[in-house]
Write a structure and sequence with these properties.
Length: 246
Protein backbone atom coordinates (compact mmCIF):
# COMPACT_ATOMS: atom_id res chain seq x y z
CA UNK A 1 0.00 0.00 0.00
CA UNK A 2 1.49 3.39 -0.87
CA UNK A 3 2.52 5.38 2.21
CA UNK A 4 0.05 8.17 1.56
CA UNK A 5 -2.91 5.76 1.36
CA UNK A 6 -1.67 3.98 4.48
CA UNK A 7 -1.61 7.27 6.39
CA UNK A 8 -5.10 8.29 5.30
CA UNK A 9 -6.52 4.86 6.14
CA UNK A 10 -4.75 4.85 9.47
CA UNK A 11 -5.97 8.29 10.55
CA UNK A 12 -9.52 7.56 9.34
CA UNK A 13 -9.56 4.36 11.36
CA UNK A 14 -8.14 6.23 14.33
CA UNK A 15 -10.86 8.86 14.13
CA UNK A 16 -13.71 6.39 13.69
CA UNK A 17 -12.80 4.04 16.50
CA UNK A 18 -15.23 4.27 19.41
CA UNK A 19 -12.83 2.83 21.97
CA UNK A 20 -10.77 5.52 23.64
CA UNK A 21 -8.10 2.99 24.63
CA UNK A 22 -7.82 1.66 21.08
CA UNK A 23 -7.58 5.22 19.73
CA UNK A 24 -4.73 5.94 22.12
CA UNK A 25 -3.05 2.68 21.15
CA UNK A 26 -3.32 3.73 17.51
CA UNK A 27 -1.81 7.11 18.39
CA UNK A 28 1.13 5.35 20.01
CA UNK A 29 1.48 3.10 16.97
CA UNK A 30 1.54 6.18 14.75
CA UNK A 31 4.38 7.63 16.78
CA UNK A 32 6.33 4.38 16.46
CA UNK A 33 5.60 4.26 12.72
CA UNK A 34 6.84 7.84 12.33
CA UNK A 35 10.00 7.06 14.23
CA UNK A 36 10.61 3.92 12.17
CA UNK A 37 9.76 5.26 8.72
CA UNK A 38 11.08 8.77 9.36
CA UNK A 39 8.54 9.87 6.79
CA UNK A 40 7.89 13.51 6.07
CA UNK A 41 4.17 12.64 6.01
CA UNK A 42 4.00 11.08 9.46
CA UNK A 43 6.67 13.12 11.24
CA UNK A 44 4.63 16.31 11.73
CA UNK A 45 1.88 14.32 13.45
CA UNK A 46 4.27 12.54 15.77
CA UNK A 47 6.37 15.61 16.54
CA UNK A 48 3.40 17.79 17.43
CA UNK A 49 1.73 15.06 19.45
CA UNK A 50 -1.21 13.30 17.89
CA UNK A 51 -3.84 15.22 19.85
CA UNK A 52 -2.66 18.56 18.48
CA UNK A 53 -2.26 17.14 14.99
CA UNK A 54 -5.92 16.18 14.98
CA UNK A 55 -7.23 19.60 15.99
CA UNK A 56 -7.68 20.74 12.34
CA UNK A 57 -10.01 17.78 11.84
CA UNK A 58 -12.09 18.59 14.91
CA UNK A 59 -15.27 19.37 12.97
CA UNK A 60 -15.66 15.71 12.05
CA UNK A 61 -13.34 14.16 14.57
CA UNK A 62 -14.75 13.34 18.01
CA UNK A 63 -12.04 14.56 20.45
CA UNK A 64 -10.09 12.11 22.54
CA UNK A 65 -10.56 14.15 25.68
CA UNK A 66 -12.99 16.31 27.64
CA UNK A 67 -12.28 19.94 28.54
CA UNK A 68 -11.81 20.51 32.25
CA UNK A 69 -14.56 23.13 32.24
CA UNK A 70 -16.94 20.43 31.03
CA UNK A 71 -15.78 17.98 33.70
CA UNK A 72 -16.17 20.62 36.44
CA UNK A 73 -19.59 21.72 35.20
CA UNK A 74 -20.87 18.14 35.08
CA UNK A 75 -19.47 17.39 38.50
CA UNK A 76 -21.09 20.56 39.91
CA UNK A 77 -24.46 19.38 38.55
CA UNK A 78 -24.43 16.14 40.54
CA UNK A 79 -22.48 17.01 43.70
CA UNK A 80 -24.69 16.36 46.71
CA UNK A 81 -25.09 19.37 49.05
CA UNK A 82 -22.93 17.79 51.76
CA UNK A 83 -20.23 16.39 49.46
CA UNK A 84 -16.55 16.29 50.38
CA UNK A 85 -14.33 16.84 47.33
CA UNK A 86 -10.68 15.80 47.47
CA UNK A 87 -8.47 17.46 44.88
CA UNK A 88 -5.16 16.11 43.60
CA UNK A 89 -5.64 17.11 40.00
CA UNK A 90 -2.15 18.71 39.77
CA UNK A 91 -2.03 20.61 36.44
CA UNK A 92 -5.77 20.16 36.00
CA UNK A 93 -6.60 21.59 39.43
CA UNK A 94 -6.62 25.30 38.63
CA UNK A 95 -9.08 25.01 35.78
CA UNK A 96 -11.15 22.44 37.62
CA UNK A 97 -11.44 24.59 40.73
CA UNK A 98 -12.20 27.69 38.67
CA UNK A 99 -15.29 26.00 37.25
CA UNK A 100 -16.37 23.82 40.16
CA UNK A 101 -19.27 25.31 42.10
CA UNK A 102 -19.14 24.45 45.77
CA UNK A 103 -21.81 25.53 48.24
CA UNK A 104 -21.51 26.26 51.96
CA UNK A 105 -22.26 22.71 53.06
CA UNK A 106 -19.67 21.19 50.75
CA UNK A 107 -16.01 20.78 51.63
CA UNK A 108 -12.80 20.73 49.65
CA UNK A 109 -9.71 18.88 50.82
CA UNK A 110 -6.36 19.64 49.21
CA UNK A 111 -2.75 19.19 50.24
CA UNK A 112 -0.42 22.16 50.47
CA UNK A 113 2.51 19.79 49.95
CA UNK A 114 3.64 18.45 46.62
CA UNK A 115 4.11 14.78 47.45
CA UNK A 116 1.99 12.80 45.03
CA UNK A 117 -0.25 9.97 46.04
CA UNK A 118 -2.07 11.85 48.79
CA UNK A 119 -5.45 12.16 47.10
CA UNK A 120 -6.88 8.65 47.01
CA UNK A 121 -5.83 7.72 50.58
CA UNK A 122 -7.14 11.10 51.80
CA UNK A 123 -10.47 10.30 50.19
CA UNK A 124 -10.54 6.88 51.84
CA UNK A 125 -9.83 8.55 55.20
CA UNK A 126 -12.53 11.15 54.60
CA UNK A 127 -15.06 8.47 53.79
CA UNK A 128 -14.19 6.35 56.82
CA UNK A 129 -14.18 9.43 59.08
CA UNK A 130 -17.43 10.84 57.73
CA UNK A 131 -19.44 7.88 56.37
CA UNK A 132 -22.50 10.13 56.41
CA UNK A 133 -21.06 12.34 53.65
CA UNK A 134 -20.45 11.51 49.97
CA UNK A 135 -16.76 11.69 49.04
CA UNK A 136 -15.52 12.43 45.54
CA UNK A 137 -11.80 12.51 44.76
CA UNK A 138 -10.45 14.13 41.61
CA UNK A 139 -6.90 12.97 40.93
CA UNK A 140 -4.37 13.08 38.10
CA UNK A 141 -3.57 9.84 36.31
CA UNK A 142 -0.01 9.94 37.66
CA UNK A 143 -1.09 10.74 41.21
CA UNK A 144 -3.67 7.95 41.11
CA UNK A 145 -1.00 5.33 40.48
CA UNK A 146 1.24 6.61 43.26
CA UNK A 147 -1.17 5.08 45.78
CA UNK A 148 -3.69 3.12 43.74
CA UNK A 149 -3.56 0.27 46.27
CA UNK A 150 -5.61 2.50 48.59
CA UNK A 151 -8.55 1.41 46.44
CA UNK A 152 -8.08 -2.08 47.88
CA UNK A 153 -8.15 -0.63 51.41
CA UNK A 154 -11.30 1.33 50.57
CA UNK A 155 -13.05 -1.80 49.31
CA UNK A 156 -11.86 -3.84 52.27
CA UNK A 157 -12.94 -1.21 54.80
CA UNK A 158 -16.30 -0.80 53.03
CA UNK A 159 -15.76 2.88 52.34
CA UNK A 160 -17.98 4.76 49.92
CA UNK A 161 -16.20 7.02 47.47
CA UNK A 162 -15.95 8.03 43.86
CA UNK A 163 -12.55 8.65 42.30
CA UNK A 164 -12.37 10.59 39.04
CA UNK A 165 -9.03 9.93 37.35
CA UNK A 166 -8.19 12.87 35.09
CA UNK A 167 -6.19 11.16 32.39
CA UNK A 168 -4.05 13.61 30.43
CA UNK A 169 -1.70 10.86 29.33
CA UNK A 170 0.96 11.17 32.01
CA UNK A 171 3.06 13.54 34.08
CA UNK A 172 2.13 16.88 32.52
CA UNK A 173 3.62 18.84 35.43
CA UNK A 174 7.00 17.23 34.76
CA UNK A 175 6.78 18.03 31.04
CA UNK A 176 5.85 21.62 31.93
CA UNK A 177 8.78 21.83 34.35
CA UNK A 178 11.16 20.73 31.57
CA UNK A 179 9.66 23.33 29.25
CA UNK A 180 9.99 25.94 32.00
CA UNK A 181 13.65 25.00 32.44
CA UNK A 182 14.20 25.29 28.68
CA UNK A 183 12.28 28.58 28.62
CA UNK A 184 9.96 27.46 25.81
CA UNK A 185 6.14 27.37 25.80
CA UNK A 186 6.12 23.92 24.21
CA UNK A 187 8.87 21.41 23.62
CA UNK A 188 7.65 18.95 20.98
CA UNK A 189 10.31 16.38 21.82
CA UNK A 190 9.52 13.23 23.75
CA UNK A 191 10.39 13.61 27.44
CA UNK A 192 11.40 10.16 28.63
CA UNK A 193 9.39 8.77 31.49
CA UNK A 194 6.66 11.41 31.42
CA UNK A 195 4.02 9.55 29.41
CA UNK A 196 1.56 7.02 30.82
CA UNK A 197 -0.31 6.03 27.69
CA UNK A 198 -3.18 3.58 27.39
CA UNK A 199 -3.69 2.58 31.02
CA UNK A 200 -7.23 1.53 31.85
CA UNK A 201 -7.40 3.14 35.30
CA UNK A 202 -10.94 1.94 35.92
CA UNK A 203 -10.04 -1.64 35.04
CA UNK A 204 -7.11 -1.54 37.47
CA UNK A 205 -9.60 -0.56 40.19
CA UNK A 206 -11.83 -3.53 39.38
CA UNK A 207 -8.86 -5.76 40.21
CA UNK A 208 -9.08 -4.43 43.76
CA UNK A 209 -12.81 -5.12 43.90
CA UNK A 210 -14.05 -1.60 43.09
CA UNK A 211 -16.44 -0.70 40.30
CA UNK A 212 -14.83 0.91 37.26
CA UNK A 213 -16.20 3.00 34.41
CA UNK A 214 -15.04 5.39 31.73
CA UNK A 215 -16.51 8.82 30.95
CA UNK A 216 -15.29 9.88 27.54
CA UNK A 217 -18.09 12.01 26.17
CA UNK A 218 -20.15 14.98 27.26
CA UNK A 219 -22.80 13.99 29.77
CA UNK A 220 -21.00 10.87 30.86
CA UNK A 221 -19.16 12.41 33.84
CA UNK A 222 -22.40 13.59 35.42
CA UNK A 223 -24.15 10.30 34.65
CA UNK A 224 -21.29 8.14 35.96
CA UNK A 225 -20.84 10.13 39.19
CA UNK A 226 -24.58 10.17 39.84
CA UNK A 227 -24.85 6.41 39.32
CA UNK A 228 -21.78 5.77 41.49
CA UNK A 229 -23.10 7.89 44.37
CA UNK A 230 -26.48 6.19 44.15
CA UNK A 231 -24.91 2.73 44.17
CA UNK A 232 -22.53 3.34 47.10
CA UNK A 233 -19.23 1.53 47.54
CA UNK A 234 -15.99 2.33 45.74
CA UNK A 235 -16.06 3.59 42.16
CA UNK A 236 -13.24 4.70 39.88
CA UNK A 237 -14.13 6.66 36.75
CA UNK A 238 -11.49 7.27 34.10
CA UNK A 239 -11.87 10.62 32.32
CA UNK A 240 -9.58 11.50 29.39
CA UNK A 241 -8.93 15.24 29.69
CA UNK A 242 -7.12 17.88 27.68
CA UNK A 243 -3.60 18.87 28.65
CA UNK A 244 -3.61 22.26 30.37
CA UNK A 245 -0.95 24.71 29.27
CA UNK A 246 -0.61 28.34 30.24
C1 LIG B 1 6.14 11.40 45.63
C2 LIG B 1 6.38 12.29 44.43
N1 LIG B 1 7.08 11.79 43.38
C3 LIG B 1 7.30 12.56 42.29
C4 LIG B 1 6.86 13.84 42.26
C5 LIG B 1 7.17 14.71 41.05
N2 LIG B 1 5.96 15.06 40.32
C6 LIG B 1 5.35 16.26 40.49
S1 LIG B 1 3.99 16.44 39.55
C7 LIG B 1 4.21 14.91 38.87
C8 LIG B 1 3.25 14.40 37.81
C9 LIG B 1 1.84 14.27 38.29
O1 LIG B 1 1.10 13.60 37.30
P1 LIG B 1 -0.46 13.67 37.32
O2 LIG B 1 -1.00 13.30 38.64
O3 LIG B 1 -0.94 12.87 36.16
O4 LIG B 1 -0.80 15.19 37.10
P2 LIG B 1 -0.49 16.12 35.83
O5 LIG B 1 0.88 16.68 36.06
O6 LIG B 1 -0.55 15.26 34.62
O7 LIG B 1 -1.57 17.15 35.86
C10 LIG B 1 5.34 14.27 39.38
C11 LIG B 1 5.81 12.93 38.99
C12 LIG B 1 6.16 14.34 43.39
N3 LIG B 1 5.67 15.57 43.43
N4 LIG B 1 5.92 13.53 44.45
MG1 LIG C 1 -1.50 13.44 34.30
Amino acid sequence: MPLRKFCITFIAQFAADRSWLRRNALASALRVAAATIGSSVLDPFARLGIKDALVPFSSWYRPLWLGLGVVAAELSQVLPPEAIVVDEGVRSSTRLLRHLELGDGQAMLRSSGGALGWGVPAAVGASLGRPDRPVIAVVGDGSYHFSVQAIWTAVREQASLVVLVLDNGGYLAVKRAIEGYLGVPRDPREHPGTRLPAIDHALVATGYGAAGAMATERGQVAAAVKAALAGGGVHVIGVPVAEVRP
